[in-house]
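Entry:
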Amino acid sequence: MIATAFQEGSPRRGRWLRAVLAVFGKEMIETLRDRRTLVAAVVLPALLMPLVVLAMPALARRQQAVLADRPARIAVAGGDTGGLVALGFDERAFSLVSAPDPMAALLRGEIDALLLDEGARDGRTRVVAVLYDESRPASKSAVQKVAQVAARLALQELQTAARTRGLDPQQLVPVAVEPRNVATPQRMGGALLGVALPFFLAVWILLGGQYAALDVGVGERERGSLDTLLMAPPSRSAIVSGKFLAVLAPATMAMVVMLCSGIASARLGSRFLADGSVDVSLPLGAAGALLLVGLALGGLLSALQLVLSLAARTLREAQQVLTGLYLLVAIPVMLVPFLGDWALQPWIPLIPVVNAAWAFRGILLADLGPRALAGTAASLVVLTVPVLAWGVRILDLQRRPI
């Protein structure tokens, strides 16, 4: 067919165009014969993208609904707040929490807001300071609920004054709510980093080792060097371990570069990306924790990519399978910020990949405790071991060339 396109006597431009179309038709026929290509190019996007488009708004609406329906966890200090707390409790807008150190409880997220009754100002207005954490959605929602209850309290007092003879509404002392953000600039910087950095860290750990996995697995098989290596003295486990480290190394390098680049970019653009004082910095302990979780995640993803590459028959098949793995990693990580109260469930640290993205956010916000950090890293390492054993099994099934 291609040779026919270059028949003598045809204009040169026409022959070139017919040759292009002939090559295109031949390659498309070959491509359409491969069902894996159709799955990667048509089926996966058709199924997964609607899931993302529908899941993200649904999770966001659920998070907002939960915050709106749940009573704000309030602690009170310094007075009775002029009936504000009593009305909020009666309307089930507040849930009173007793904490020995309410400020520390607020910073830990155990309460949503701390009310401080500062008394009357100039004899005309009773000031109630609302201490909240700007980096927590639940705390910002609590401020709105306090303001709404204060507005209803003022309306009730005016209605009472109107019904009571001899009570001058001018003699009423209104309650003024003053929100005060107690989140430090460092915490606000962590919240800024937590918006996108966990997603890019997880994805770049995967992409950083992808080409190495293709090369040391199916790439060596197509070049014939894998058969030679299987005839050498090293055991199958030693071969898989060496290849695993060769995939993990560039994945770790990509993670470190992405982390440094993300922090530098956020520092340069913090004044455009956030209001107020923001300090985008990473303490040494937080950096070590991020690298620990990232290394554990990189181990699992590198092992998966290596095993899938070793199991693939051709380079094209391996690329298509790794594309599916990329989607299986990227989509859950993308949805982590919308988990809301689900992120507090004890099973979150046990879900692969999701637990790493959740841990990244917790480290950046200084919310992740040592036990949760260790549990997340350990669960990823435990899953890596059987994946590598699967790779050893794949090589065991390879026949030694004679």
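The radius of gyration is 30 Å.
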